[in-house]
Amino acid sequence: MIVGKKHKIIDCTIRDGGLVNNWDFSVEFVQHLYKCLNAAGVDYMEIGYKNSPKLLKGSESSGPWRFLKDDFLQEVIEEKQTTKLSALVDIGRVDVNDIVPREKSMLDLIRVACYIKDVDEALELVQLFHERGYESTLNIMALSNVKENQLIEAFKRISHSVVDVVYIVDSYGSLMPSDIQYLVKMFQKHLPSKRLGAHMHNNLQLGLANTLAAADHGVELLDCSVYGMGRAAGNCPTELLVGLLKNSNYSLRPVLDMVEKYMIPLRNIEEWGYLIPYMITGMFDEHPRSAMAFLNSPDRNMALQFYDMLTVPNVKS
Amino acid sequence: MIVGKKHKIIDCTIRDGGLVNNWDFSVEFVQHLYKCLNAAGVDYMEIGYKNSPKLLKGSESSGPWRFLKDDFLQEVIEEKQTTKLSALVDIGRVDVNDIVPREKSMLDLIRVACYIKDVDEALELVQLFHERGYESTLNIMALSNVKENQLIEAFKRISHSVVDVVYIVDSYGSLMPSDIQYLVKMFQKHLPSKRLGAHMHNNLQLGLANTLAAADHGVELLDCSVYGMGRAAGNCPTELLVGLLKNSNYSLRPVLDMVEKYMIPLRNIEEWGYLIPYMITGMFDEHPRSAMAFLNSPDRNMALQFYDMLTVPNVKS
């Protein structure tokens, strides 16, 4: 049990929420969010991906937060305040030539997302970002589908790397608080010198509960997004985490400002959150892509049809 | 930790959900729910209140599930199956002359809801229902606002009563899993001979997590409602509890049938669930009535205005 302010909050609204609206956030939206997160005392704002458009198909229509450029960021964030800035990169989608030394960038933290098979490649990127002066995290995705021996093998390399923080990522929103407790203890045992982070999805309405369970067991960096905006079922909502995290000193009111001014109107035109197909993929520990496709079809409210697609062998595509 | 099927689920969709739509459920709706809950293996269906319309103002416009009559119930539930039937009564609103002996009623269980100050009166009702052959529970509401010494005083009388089950009711949706653990242990210590129940609200998106925490610590009866339908932020969703409760043998598919056929269409015309004013009353451990009024006003999306109403002294009404 952690006593005193030991936790740090990373708001991922722009980065993970961009998966909902193809990163179509206005500069005013992002600037207002930065102002609100500063006022709330939130520690980091993940302002997008730092992948390269050259390495991703169909990237032309995406908003600028998908391929962050340092000069653009300097225009957006006119004055840096206390909330640090973060970006995420994916293995195989980042051009290392785009990563300028930290002193020339608005970014403080670069996080590397990878599947377990790509941990070595991810650690090479982490090493490079480290040399260029950034804080770094390694975010192992889809942890619920990783076999424990694979994970323990990976821990050996991770423990000898320079990475600052290792993340427990519940990509499919399928984990429960007891699973989180188990995973945190395993990570702590094998990575005693690393700080830990948690990124939870809300398919089973457990995003907050899992994040609080992680915090209770000593996880330091806690991801969330305002009004829960994130892919599919979304994330642990920032307003809840800010309001409920124990031994912390965050302010709820500025987050509600963002909710009122931007998130409620946005939720009227974009969709994320507790929807039955996302609940079902969460329960079955699957990627939400089938649910996303189903919700874009005319049958979107046919809960049984979707359930049968995933459970009846000859119906499953 | 409980091993084996020790839990029982009570679906409260009609009773608690009736607080949303003034009990305006069709007979077909209720019959279909009964069929689905039976198919899912749910143990109890709370089919309404058994209060008296003579003792409640403005009762004329309410649907029949607010004032259950035994002959009406016999028409609705043509054939009793394995799911038992339950009704709730409130102190001061029930006419004991309406309670026929159990063998003449479709009801199996009568639950008595009370505030801590009315425990004695509630136990008198419990005694009477017990004598007429019913199972009984005592549901102490607004537990988050009860002082521990009051509770311990009440436990003495409760422990000497005939009541079968004593409920932990998070009326304001303000409790967290660690609070639930604390309360369950206290109830177990002072009421070692009683079975326990849990009724959680979802203001902080913790309805499921709190219900699972209660179950993990030995609470036997678990309340929920389909698609979370219940007053204000609603309840722990039945589909999640049925799908995720460990060591149980419930079927999810029939609950999804109810969600698809009735609940998704109903949610399009009635409102419950995670709405910011309900989140705020939950966080401040208050009754949701101020949030309900606010959401019926033209300012309903002005999250900051509502927050300030509850926090700035000279703005609070």
TrEMBL record, chains A, B:
Gene Ontology MF terms: 2-isopropylmalate synthase activity
InterPro entries in the record: 2-IPM_HCS-like, Aldolase_TIM, PYR_CT
Entries under PROSITE patterns matching the protein: PYR_CT
SUPFAM superfamilies: Aldolase
Pfam families recorded: HMGL-like
This protein's UniProt keywords: Manganese
GO biological process, one term: L-leucine biosynthetic process
Manganese as UniProt keyword: yes
CDD domains named in the record: DRE_TIM_HOA_like
Domain Pyruvate carboxyltransferase: 7-260
Highest taxon above the source species: Bacteria
Record-given protein name: Nucleoid-structuring protein H-NS
Organism: Cohnella endophytica
